[in-house]
């Protein structure tokens, strides 16, 4: 086979793949689609280790996967996507890995926010959720800029949780409520679970969490969106590592979600 023939065949296969994806999305949209999906993006380091790559290369592959998955979710009509990008506990990892991940995060989040066509077409709002004061100064300033740049957009929301722990998010919400109570901005009879839920940063101005997905075969929540999961979200675990998360993986998970919602599971 000549080079030109090989190129034509590869192009045709790519066309068929995209056509299948678009058809599958149109079919899925006929059933219940989760309004808010959370992802615990696990397996970047396992992916890298299996290929004798440096951990930062695995994280790089993970960011490519995030962009693809975000695009698929938006095409499906998902209104909010929350991703666990970095736990507060991850600061305990080796210093060189943390520094490399911080630099890569700054670079990739900045690239995403500067993809004007993508942002404007979807009216995407990017929100960085977590203890931003714990980040290196340059990363923190860039995250604030990203929050500001898209805050007036009216479309779907991408919550990038970094550095984040669910217990920290809950305690921060309770502290905010206590402050407002002390200032008499709210009354004691207004204290309830709904007030706490609407104060949580990751679901402020977002639909309640419907579906939580964790990759890499681990079957724990790792202190991510615990309150939100307790309110009835479906939790799905998949054995694939985050950089290997494909459209077919998402397709299977959404089908399971729809079967559950329709009472077949």
Automatic annotation (TrEMBL):
Q: What class of enzyme is it?
A: transferase
What EC number(s) has UniProt assigned to this enzyme? Answer: 2.5.1.-
Kindly name one Pfam family recorded for this protein. Prenyltransf
Segment forming the signal sequence: none
Q: Does the keyword Membrane apply?
A: no
InterPro entries named among the record's database cross-references: UPP_synth-like, UPP_synth-like_CS, UPP_synth-like_sf
PROSITE patterns noted in UniProt: UPP_SYNTHASE
Organism source for this protein?
Answer: Smittium culicis
Q: Which GO terms describe its molecular function?
A: ditrans,polycis-polyprenyl diphosphate synthase [(2E,6E)-farnesyl diphosphate specific] activity
Question: Family per UniProt?
Answer: Belongs to the UPP synthase family.
Q: Which CDD domains match?
A: Cis_IPPS
Going by the UniProt record, its keywords in alphabetical order are:
Magnesium, Transferase
Specify the protein name. Alkyl transferase
Report the GO terms under cellular component: dehydrodolichyl diphosphate synthase complex; endoplasmic reticulum; lipid droplet; membrane
Superkingdom field: Eukaryota
A single BP term in Gene Ontology: polyprenol biosynthetic process
